[in-house]
Amino acid sequence: MFFAPDSAATNISLLCKIIFEEEPPLKDKVDPIIFLFNGDEDRISAKLRINYDIPRNFKYSLIGILLQCNKNFFVLLKKNYNLMIAYQYSNRPMVECLVSYVVVVPNKAWHGLSSECLIFPTRIGNGKLIIEEIRINGTHMKDLLEISSDGKILNPEVEKIFLTRISELNGHDR
Question: What pTM, to 2 d.p., does this model score?
Answer without folding.
Answer: 0.84
